[in-house]
Design a protein that fits this description.
By secondary structure, the protein is of the alpha/beta class. It has helices spanning 15-21, 63-83, 105-117, 132-139, 159-178, 195-206, 218-228, 237-240, 279-288, 296-299, 302-308, 316-324, 326-340, 344-362; strands at residues 26-32, 37-45, 51-58, 89-96, 122-126, 187-191, 210-214, 231-232, 245-248, 267-268, 292-293. It binds nicotinamide-adenine-dinucleotide (NAD). Nicotinamide-adenine-dinucleotide is lined by residues 158-159, 162, 191-192, 194-197, 214-217, 220, 235, 249-252, 254, 271-273, 300, 303.
Length: 366
């Protein structure tokens, strides 16, 4: 079975070898001397629909690293869209360079021309190092872009919808663990109270959960604690709290060899990407410890759901309604995991693969 994450992928392998490893459809290398553009667009799979994925701008240490990243990320998008029931494929783009210094209108519009040439098989969106303003520049050259500002009819900040999807997944996990999806009185540790974490705490507070929060930024921590009557924990203590639910909402990799034995929760459900440092190790280890792990790429799918809602004319209500479905999908993932003796992460990947296979057959004839 395919895995979502691989360490050090691709460094010593030919480009075609890397494409064939996980069945990528297409990779486009974009170069423009005048603007200094160096970008790679990877289309992993378009069986379900056009490949939608963010444009990441990052000062990669090498081209090999940029390629490995775009291949890994585009594949992740395929699974995220497929498991969420969206009619989208998986793609991603990386622009090699420093987002703080190396970005301007001409570079982004030149990149937009490359997206245009893909005739809609890739749809660009915002990611690390790019902003809604950057999407506006790309939009000047191609219609195949979303994540535009609300003032331009776009979907705006995805964080509230992402948080709502995480909340729904968390409730499904509670249903599985405690027999009821009510979070009232449940002890919940939210690690990272930035954009998504902040909205998540608001939802949890409305449901009268007992909330503990940690963050690197003291000011933000105090603000959220005061606003939603949450209790503050230190960056280290957050792992070992005796809680019902641990919600990783900061950076990835927080569930690893050093932290896993400290966790005293029944459920892990948060929005952070790539929460398990080594998926194949911590996935089964959590199951063994009796911790219900709600797969990260499903928990954070609200962001993709929100941005993709732009394609048919953005409507916030319909984005929320779609994000609500994460509840039922999460329960289905748990059921499949139990039935087939898989970790929940493996089950979510399998569900995504099954959908691609089945719908691919539906579409095989004209
Ligand atoms: P953000 O930068 O606004 O917030 C992250 C917060 O986590 C920051 O305040 C940071 O200080 C804190 N943090 C980081 N590491 C921490 C740690 N070890 N302990 C405590 N706090 C820590 O980011 P965001 O937009 O809220 O996204 C959070 C996560 O969710 C990221 O992993 C992101 O990739 C993922 N995600 C976000 C969206 C979205 O809609 N914004 C969508 C999908 C996935």
């Amino acid at each position: 079975m395919a895995r979502l994450k691989e360490v050090g992928a691709g460094k010593d392998k030919s480009v075609f070898h890397q494409l064939s490893e996980h069945d990528h459809e297409k990779v486009v290398f974009c170069h423009d001397k005048d603007t200094g553009l160096k970008a790679i667009i990877a289309i992993h799979n378009t069986v379900l629909g056009p490949a939608l994925g963010g444009v990441r701008m990052w000062a990669y240490a090498s081209e090999a690293e940029a390629l490995a990243d775009v291949l890994r990320l585009s594949r992740g998008m395929t699974y995220k869209a497929a498991v969420s029931g969206l009619n989208l494929g998986g793609g991603k783009a990386v622009i090699i360079g420093d987002a703080k210094q190396g970005k301007d209108e001409a570079l982004l519009r030149r990149f937009g021309r490359f997206v245009k040439n893909l005739n809609g098989s890739y749809i660009a969106a915002e990611d690390v190092g790019t902003t809604p303003r950057d999407m506006e520049y790309i939009r000047m050259e191609t219609e195949h872009v979303c994540g535009l500002p609300e003032s331009m009819g776009g979907s705006g900040d995805p964080s509230p919808v992402t948080a709502y999807g995480t909340y729904m997944g968390m409730k499904a996990a509670a249903k599985k663990a405690f027999g009821s999806d009510s979070l009232a009185g449940k002890r919940i540790a939210v690690q990272g109270v930035g954009h998504v974490g902040g909205y998540l705490v608001e939802l949890l507070s409305k449901e009268s959960a007992e909330i503990y929060i940690a963050d690197i930024y003291e000011d933000r921590l105090r603000e959220v604690a005061k606003k939603h009557k949450a209790q503050v924990a230190s960056m280290e203590d957050i792992y070992g709290l005796e809680v019902d639910i641990y919600a990783p909402c900061g950076l990835g990799g927080t569930i690893n060899a050093a932290t896993i034995d400290r966790l005293k929760c029944r459920i892990i459900a948060g929005c952070a990407n790539n929460q398990l440092r080594e998926e194949e190790v911590q996935g089964p280890a959590l199951a063994e410890k009796g911790i219900i792990y709600a797969p990260d790429f499903l928990m954070s799918a609200g962001g993709l759901i929100n941005v993709s809602s732009e394609l048919g004319g953005y409507n916030r209500e319909s984005a929320y309604a779609k994000a609500e479905r994460i509840y039922g999908i999460t329960l289905d993932v748990f059921e499949l995991a139990e039935k087939e003796g898989l970790s929940t992460q493996q089950a979510a990947v399998k569900m995504a693969e099954n959908r691609i296979k089945r719908i691919g057959k539906v579409r095989a004839t004209f």
